[in-house]
Amino acid sequence: CEEHGQECVDTDPVGLGNWECRCKAPLTGAAKTIGAAECELDECVSAGGQAVCGMAGQSCVDEEKAVGATMGWKCVCAGGFMTEKVMGAAECEEDECDDAATRKVCEDAGQACADGDKTAANSWECTCVAPAAGAPGARGPAACEVDECAATCSHCADAGSGNVCAAAGQECFDNDKAP
């Protein structure tokens, strides 16, 4: 046991063949009778990784727990982000509209992509581009409309005020508000 840095414990001083090796802190692992235990070093626990990651609302992961493997713990973002950082809190903000495929969903509809909460996954939405207006679409195209009666018109007789009908004493109705 000692040659492996472990503690030898005789669980029954009267009987024979019942001694076991046990891991010494900060190592952990199951004791083994008549042989060296398989110990591992979880730096999330022993090196304070759990505290560092936990304070940032993240999870600590130590994928290499072999004795002697040090400085390998990492913080992993919550909320579906794949961001991580070795031995420290990760940067968990991501603008999902930076992703070309996400942005294309909005652009194909003639709309803009906006990510209002960069700390949460799947929070992007498509928004209407002026003169269109409407409710944003969560992870898809928005319901946009263009009210041509309210829109300004640079080529109209009233020099762009958008009030052609009003100037003639009439009321404007836009029966097709599709962009």
Q: Spatial order of the strands in the main sheet?
A: 1-2-3
Oligomeric description of these chains:
single chain
Instruction: Tell me the fraction of residues in β-strands, as a range.
Output: 15-25%
Largest sheet: 3 strands, antiparallel
N-to-C CA distance: 77 Å
- The total strand number stands at 11
* Continuous helix count: 4
Low-confidence stretches: none
The structure class reads alpha+beta
Description:
13% of the residues lie in helices and 20% in strands. The chain has helices at 43-46, 49-55, 100-107, 164-167; strands spanning 7-10, 19-22, 32-33, 59-61, 74-76, 84-86, 112-115, 124-127, 133-135, 137-138, 143-145. Strand 1 and strand 2 form a beta hairpin. A 3-stranded antiparallel β-sheet has the order 1-2-3, with no helix packed on it. Strands 4-5-6 form a 3-stranded antiparallel β-sheet. The chain is an alpha+beta fold. It starts with 6 loop residues before the first strand and ends in a 12-residue tail after the last helix. The protein has 4 helices and 11 strands; from the N terminus they run E-E-E-H-H-E-E-E-H-E-E-E-E-E-H. The longest helix is centred in the middle third of the chain and has 8 residues, at 100-107. The radius of gyration is 32 Å and the shape is rod-shaped. The model has no long low-confidence stretch (mean pLDDT 84).
